C-alpha cells in the first residue's frame, strides 16, 4: 500500500494505492491521525481510485477517522471509488454517513456554499 497525503485549505487528501488490509491498516491509521493532530484539518477526502482491495480493518480505519473528524465538526468524503470498492462501501453503509464524490475537486463545491 502506498499513501500520499496532502493538506490544502484545512482539507486532508489521502490518496491510497494498493491493498488496505490488516497488515497495512494500522500504518494508515497512524499516518492519518498524526496529520489530524498536527495540522488544522477540518475535512478528509479518501481517494480510493487506486485501491485494489479493502477488508474490514481498512474499513475500520476510515470509519474511525470519520468519527474523529465528525467530533471536530468536519466531514469525510470518499472520492473516485472504483466499482469494486464502491460496492463494498455501499454494502457496508458508508455512503449513508459519508459523501461519495467522483472527483477530489468536488469537496470545494460542497464546502463553498457554507462559507
Automatic annotation (TrEMBL):
Keywords on record: Phosphoprotein, Sporulation
One family name in Pfam for this protein: STAS
InterPro entries, per the entry: Anti-sigma_ant, Anti-sigma_F_ant, STAS_dom, STAS_dom_sf
Domain STAS: residue ranges: 1-115
Family: Belongs to the anti-sigma-factor antagonist family.
Role noted for this protein: In the phosphorylated form it could act as an anti-anti-sigma factor that counteracts SpoIIAB and thus releases sigma f from inhibition.
Annotated NCBIfam families: ant_ant_sig (TIGR00377), spore_II_AA (TIGR02886)
Protein name: Anti-sigma F factor antagonist
Amino acid at each position: 500500500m502506498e499513501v500520499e497525503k496532502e493538506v490544502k485549505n484545512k482539507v486532508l487528501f489521502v490518496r491510497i494505492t494498493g491493498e488496505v488490509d490488516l497488515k497495512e491498516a494500522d500504518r494508515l491509521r497512524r499516518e492519518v491521525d498524526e496529520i489530524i493532530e498536527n495540522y488544522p484539518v477540518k475535512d478528509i477526502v479518501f481517494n480510493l481510485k487506486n485501491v485494489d482491495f479493502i477488508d474490514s480493518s481498512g474499513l475500520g480505519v476510515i470509519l474511525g477517522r470519520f468519527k474523529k473528524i465528525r467530533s471536530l465538526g468536519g466531514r469525510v468524503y470518499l472520492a473516485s471509488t472504483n466499482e469494486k470498492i464502491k460496492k463494498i462501501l455501499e454494502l457496508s453503509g458508508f455512503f449513508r454517513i459519508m459523501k461519495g464524490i467522483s472527483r477530489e475537486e468536488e469537496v470545494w463545491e460542497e464546502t463553498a456554499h457554507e462559507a
